[in-house]
Write a structure and sequence with these properties.
Blueprint (H helix, E strand, L loop, with lengths): L8 H8 L3 E6 L8 E5 L8 E5 L2 E5 L4 H19 L1 E4 L11 E2 L19 E6 L10 E8 L3 E4 L5 E11 L2 E12 L11 E3 L8 E3 L1 E10 L6 E6 L6 E4 L2 E2 L7 H4 E4 L5 E3 H4 L10 E7 L11 E3 L6 E5 L4 E8 L4 E5 L3 E3 L6 E9 L4 E8 L2
Antiparallel strand pairs: 1-2, 3-4, 5-20, 6-17, 7-15, 7-18, 8-14, 8-20, 9-16, 10-11, 10-15, 12-13, 18-19, 21-22, 22-25, 23-24, 23-26, 26-27
Length: 366
């Protein structure tokens, strides 16, 4: 049995003395199995055991120990319940190969143009980073540096289709609009996936959050399309890499033409555009484990500096993540300071001392 490098046995012994006999954590997170043997003069041997496939605390009298161990369980259980992944590695991008392709009449190959294209998007399956059909698309990130909103009421819509074939759309699984008024093209406000731009990070300035997360179809093969603005004078352009930098353009980069037909970029454009678009689905993967969920009241939401949590059971740990899955704050009380966070949408995971879990999202405002 391998040990995970979350916290070492010696540090627990230092903190809590000889009461701790040993700690081992399974490397197989799908089993979410944490075993702890405690020995002391005041209490019999106690242990964690599996209950409904989640770890639950039994007969441990040390309150500080309980909170520390539950913090460890949260790391395991939150991974078992849902690992958040921003699918972006398919886009080979650096400082020198981002592009916006213009058409003959100054439209955009990757956006609105004189041909009346309706949607642009990417196909996602095992070739572009989808590892399982057990999960949900919770939001879509995109890099859209050019936008015109002459009407003042323009919008784009993220649409997810089950993939059918390279020349026909499958069933629409979900959609979510975003007003162009909420699309910020100021480069100062860009955010980045996987580090800063100079370190190979991928910029984005659009985050479309689905009111109802979209389940990945059993085929784990789907399209993420951006429906373009339809009002005359309103337009956008999505960043791509340089043509030739994406080998799967004929099967994975698509547009919906004015006649509602689906066609790949390689065949659609005379120059055979072999590009990938900067469209990144954010996926929370799940597995077959039964989830011991609990209701949780979170307030105020939106918040400026502090978030409070209220559950029926004592809270052991709170973890705050950005939408791309990075842990940005944590605490072990009923409230957590978020004053240091930038304005935006964040995800929270709450674990109680009885192994119950609550998850959700909140808005941080300035």
């Amino acid at each position: 049995m391998d040990l995970l490098p979350i916290i070492c046995e010696e540090s627990i012994e230092t903190a809590f003395g000889s009461a701790v006999h040993w700690v081992k954590l399974c490397a197989n997170l799908e089993r979410a199995l944490l075993l702890l043997m405690l020995t002391s003069d005041e209490s019999p041997i106690s242990s964690f055991c599996l209950n409904n496939n989640l770890v639950r605390l039994l007969n441990i009298k040390f309150a500080p120990m309980k909170k520390l161990l539950c913090a460890l369980v949260l790391i395991v259980c939150s991974t078992a319940k849902g690992q958040t992944d921003t699918v972006s590695d398919f886009l080979m991008y650096n400082l020198f190969n981002g592009a916006i392709y213009r058409t003959m009449s100054n439209g955009y190959a990757t956006g609105n143009n004189e041909l009346g294209d309706l949607e642009k998007g990417m196909r996602f399956n095992s070739l572009t980073g989808i590892t399982s059909n057990n999960g949900y698309v919770t939001n879509v990130l995109a890099w859209i540096p050019y936008m015109s909103n002459i009407s003042g009421t323009g919008q784009i819509t993220a649409k997810i289709y089950e993939f059918a074939s390279v020349d026909s759309l499958g069933p629409l699984l979900g959609s979510q609009p975003l007003l162009l008024n909420n699309l910020d093209t100021n480069t100062v406000n860009y955010q980045y996936i996987d580090g800063a731009l100079a370190q190979g990070g991928r910029p984005y300035n659009v985050n479309i959050i689905f009111t109802n997360p979209v389940a990945i179809p059993p085929s784990h093969d789907f399209l993420v399309m951006i429906q373009l603005p339809t009002t005359t004078g309103d337009s956008i352009a999505i960043i791509s890499n340089i043509s030739g930098d994406f080998a799967y353009a004929a099967t994975h980069t698509f547009e919906v033409k004015a006649d509602n037909s689906l066609i790949n970029f390689h065949d659609s454009w005379q120059e055979q555009m072999d590009v990938a678009l900067a469209i990144y689905p954010v996926i929370t993967y799940t597995n077959s484990l039964a989830i011991n969920e609990i209701s949780c009241t979170v307030y105020p939401n939106p918040t400026t500096n502090k978030l409070n949590f209220q559950t029926e059971s004592e809270i052991a740990s709170i973890i705050i993540k950005s939408v791309d899955g990075k842990i940005v704050a944590s605490d072990s009380s009923n409230s957590i300071s978020v004053n240091q966070l930038q304005a935006g949408i964040y995800l929270y995971s709450v674990l109680t001392v009885f192994g119950q879990i609550a998850t959700g999202s909140f808005s941080k405002i300035n």
